[in-house]
Specification:
25% of the residues lie in helices and 21% in strands. The chain has helices at residues 22-34, 145-158, 171-176, 180-185, 243-253, 274-286, 304-324, 349-355; strands spanning 106-116, 119-133, 162-163, 196-204, 209-217, 223-231, 255-258, 292-297, 332-338, 357-362. It is elongated.
């Protein structure tokens, strides 16, 4: 379709509206009125496009993305001043039913890839997923892909969100993230292929990040997908080894596997990793003659070269944290093996979780 002659579409309301109770809505309305932006008593229907705007037009889905550049600047998306409805924010589009139910539609903790600027980035947290057949609705009207996209974009914008993706899928973008197989392992959207359109959005509050992925196309019948992720660290259900347990494992086996939390695809320690670091420190303080090799390991997701680099950087981070607590660096060394020494099956999530570890190995 000629973009300079986009026809007016007679769109029925998608009713992508916020659900909230009366008392909460009253409180939010009072806050909005104080800020000069009154909120109606009942949940308002979010904007519906009666004409597709040309400002900020969606890019050509077949366009070649630019070379991977600097990391996405989170601060480029301002903190929203809107009162957000309960997660995951949106009702089903009018006349459509989510084909995903129960645990397939709500995941307490998982991973998904988002397009941030011209790069694919993996995010972890609470996920809400929607999959809709755009060629069937209760009213009998079909939804076009552009209609599906535009209404969600309008809804997200009304909540203070911004579109953050500047490219579409092709082989270069997929290879930069470790290849199609690595991406599809944690994928909850339309296929990452050029004939589907994918757009990522971000809503920021003072203490939360909400990443939203809207996609449609690449399937028969035509399907639309909605992925909403509340970024958060997993609350581990596993206890960690204390210094005495580490000592016992080192004496009996010469090594001990530890599960230390880092930011996704980074070597930055998360705050909840400090107790493990403190126990390693206690272990070293209790035995001044003990020397340790700190060895990083990953699962097999992504390229082996990148995983070795990441594993080595994480091992160095642990070493640096211990030196920062006063440990003599001469007692420590670090290395990274990436996916080369798995201790569990990488074909299952449970196995991959076991393989993402840091091992302490006693140096004779």
């Amino acid at each position: 379709m000629n973009r300079n002659r986009v026809a007016c579409l007679a769109l029925a309301s998608l009713a992508l509206s916020a659900c909230s109770g009366g008392s909460d809505a009253d409180q939010r309305r009072a806050a909005e009125e104080a800020a000069g932006r009154a909120m109606p008593a009942e949940p308002a229907s979010l904007p519906v496009a009666t004409e597709l705007p040309t400002a900020g037009a969606m890019p050509d889905a077949t366009a070649t993305p630019p070379r991977s550049g600097a990391e996405f600047d989170l601060a480029s998306v301002p903190i929203t001043t809107a009162s957000l409805p309960p997660f995951p924010f949106f009702k089903d589009p009018e006349g459509l039913a989510n084909e995903l139910k129960g645990p397939d539609a709500q995941k307490p903790f998982d991973r998904h890839w988002f397009i941030a600027s011209n790069r694919l980035v993996p995010l972890e947290g609470k996920l809400a997923l929607g999959r809709y057949n755009l060629e069937f609705s209760e009213s009998g009207r079909r939804y076009s892909a552009i209609e599906f996209h535009r209404n969600y974009e309008n809804a997200i914008t009304s909540l203070g969100g911004r579109r953050i993706s500047t490219t579409q899928f092709n082989d270069e973008l997929l290879q930069s993230a470790g290849g199609r197989e690595a991406v599809e392992r944690y994928w909850n959207a339309a296929p990452p292929v050029p004939d589907a359109e994918h757009y990522s959005y971000l809503i920021r509050t003072p203490d939360k990040e909400y990443w939203i992925h809207i996609s449609a196309g690449g399937t028969v019948p035509l399907l639309g997908f909605v992925t909403v992720l509340e970024k958060q660290a997993m609350q581990s259900a596993l206890g960690f080894l204390d210094a005495a347990a580490m000592r016992k494992a080192l004496d009996e086996q010469g090594r001990v596997a530890l599960y230390i939390n880092f930011d996704v695809d980074k070597a930055t320690l998360r705050a909840d990793s400090q107790p493990v670091i403190d126990e390693i420190h206690k272990l070293l303080v209790s035995d001044p003659a003990l020397k340790l090799s700190i060895e990083g390991h990953t699962d097999s997701t992504g390229s082996a070269a990148r995983n070795r680099e990441l594993a080595a950087a994480r091992a160095r981070t642990v070493l640096g944290a211990l030196v920062g607590l006063g440990v003599d660096p001469a007692r420590l060394r670090s290395s990274g093996f990436g996916p080369d020494k798995p201790i569990a099956d990488n074909s299952t999530e449970e196995g991959r979780a076991k393989n993402r570890r840091v091992e302490l190995v006693k140096i004779p």
